């Protein structure tokens, strides 16, 4: 049966570690595999890093840039070259491709989120393989995905993928970084409940050209599996593993999806949006939301943090500051400061108008 596959390849698999040179045979082999999977009527998305790494190589820079502006400029050099390489290779196999550059802002507005969804669906119908990267040149710090592992998980959630493959320069996840801990134990299978409490030394540094190490891949696995997407970490030098995994072979580290994923709108609230503030809740409100599936009323709010507008996303925290949920607010921050702790029937007197009864309606609330 045709499936929707999102395949993310990191800089560490696209370039040689020592020289930063393109790993051409590796890329060609990935292109062949993805084309075959497409020809078997699967919907295929490639999320490709490499713009910064390839830009560095083009400009003969010995290491990744540190400043934001330099990184953005180098990504602009590298992205064009990256797409040219893909287009040459895919064109040999007569496989059309498309470039999609996203920023977090594009997934924040419901309308652009839905537009992005529609564009992917049209591309699938046209038999195209979309190639996605972060739009590094325009993304500002607070609105960056920051790494393509997170971006690929959000894309997998957006296109309602069946599988997310995170291809990297190790064959799977280990209990610790196998480079520095030779005794690290391989992790083969992770159930949805194990993932919540999984303890590994994941490192956040990455290889010389990559970013994030395993920490961002684990975070991506959490996002994707909670959206119902089966996630696999495996070696980028062996793209031929992909069809084998689809046929049920136990390769890499496989993360089972959550059995009851959130619906598309709730996934957008949970992962598409950037929280603009925090509301601290009393114990009763925490219980009502976590156990009772109730809406948030002003009475349960003890403290408001940040400046935000109506319909912005905020984090809901318990008295210790632990995030318990996220949601879209019906009042702005200064209004909530005035009505927090009050009964809903007191709101009109304080604000001078009759707003909605709930501060966050349960349809706009997602548990953490
Ligand atoms: N627990 C772990 N298991 C496996 N690899 C790990 C772990 N912790 C850190 N790493 C490191 O993460 C690196 C891959 O991350 P990164 O360089 O960001 O890759 P990519 O460019 O593919 O995103 C590996 O080379 C490995 O050394
Ligand atoms: N957008 C950046 C990707 C940065 C990134 O996440 O890199 P990696 O850790 O190699 O997947 C680029 O194209 O270089």
UniProtKB/TrEMBL annotation:
The keyword Amino-acid biosynthesis applies. SUPFAM superfamilies: Carbamate kinase-like (SSF53633), PUA domain-like (SSF88697). It catalyses: L-glutamate + ATP = L-glutamyl 5-phosphate + ADP. Keywords: Amino-acid biosynthesis, ATP-binding, Cytoplasm, Kinase, Nucleotide-binding, Proline biosynthesis, Transferase. GO terms for molecular function: glutamate 5-kinase activity. Gene3D superfamilies: Acetylglutamate kinase-like, PUA domain. It is found in: Cytoplasm. The keyword ATP-binding applies. Its main location: cytoplasm. Pathway: Amino-acid biosynthesis; L-proline biosynthesis; L-glutamate 5-semialdehyde from L-glutamate: step 1/2. Residues 277-360 form the PUA domain. Pfam families: AA_kinase (PF00696), PUA (PF01472). It is an enzyme of class 2 (transferase). ATP binds at residues 8, 168-169, 211-217. Its EC number is 2.7.2.11. Substrate binds at residues 49, 136, 148. Signal peptide: none annotated. PANTHER family: GLUTAMATE 5-KINASE. Belongs to the glutamate 5-kinase family. Catalyzes the transfer of a phosphate group to glutamate to form L-glutamate 5-phosphate. This is Glutamate 5-kinase. It comes from Spirulina subsalsa FACHB-351.
């Amino acid at each position: 049966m045709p499936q929707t596959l999102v395949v993310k390849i990191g800089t560490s698999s696209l370039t040689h570690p020592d020289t930063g040179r393109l790993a051409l045979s590796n890329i060609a082999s990935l292109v062949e595999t993805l084309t075959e999977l497409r020809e078997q009527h699967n919907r295929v998305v490639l999320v490709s890093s490499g713009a910064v790494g390839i830009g560095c190589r083009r400009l003969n820079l010995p290491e990744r840039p540190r400043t934001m502006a330099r990184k953005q400029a180098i990504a602009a050099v590298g992205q064009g070259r990256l797409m040219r390489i893909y287009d040459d290779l895919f064109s040999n196999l007569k496989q059309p491709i498309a470039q999609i550059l996203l920023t977090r802002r594009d997934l924040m507005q419901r309308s652009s989120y839905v537009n992005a969804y529609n564009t992917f669906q049209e591309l699938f119908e046209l038999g195209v393989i979309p190639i996605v990267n972060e739009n590094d040149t325009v993304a500002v710090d607070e609105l960056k995905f920051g790494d393509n592992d997170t971006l690929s998980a959000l894309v997998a959630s957006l296109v309602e993928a069946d599988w997310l493959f995170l291809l990297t320069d190790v064959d799977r996840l280990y209990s610790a970084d196998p480079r520095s801990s030779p005794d690290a134990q391989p992790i083969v299978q992770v159930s949805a409940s194990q993932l919540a409490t999984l303890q590994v030394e994941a490192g956040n540094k990455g290889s010389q050209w990559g970013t994030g190490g395993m920490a961002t891949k684990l975070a991506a696995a959490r996002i994707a599996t909670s959206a119902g997407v089966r996630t696999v970490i495996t070696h980028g030098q062996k793209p031929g593993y992909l069809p084998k995994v689809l046929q049920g072979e136990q390769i890499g580290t496989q993360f089972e999806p959550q059995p009851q994923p959130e619906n598309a709108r709730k996934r957008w609230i949970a992962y598409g949006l950037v929280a603009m503030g925090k509301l601290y809740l009393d114990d009763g409100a925490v219980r009502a939301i976590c156990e009772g599936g109730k809406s948030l009323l002003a009475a349960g709010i003890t403290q408001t943090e940040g400046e935000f507008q109506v319909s912005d996303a905020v984090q809901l925290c318990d008295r210790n500051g632990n995030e318990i949920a996220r949601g879209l607010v019906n009042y702005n921050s200064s209004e909530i400061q005035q009505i927090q702790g009050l009964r809903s029937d007191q709101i009109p007197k304080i604000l001078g108008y009759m707003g909605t009864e709930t501060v966050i309606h349960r349809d706009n609330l997602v548990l953490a």
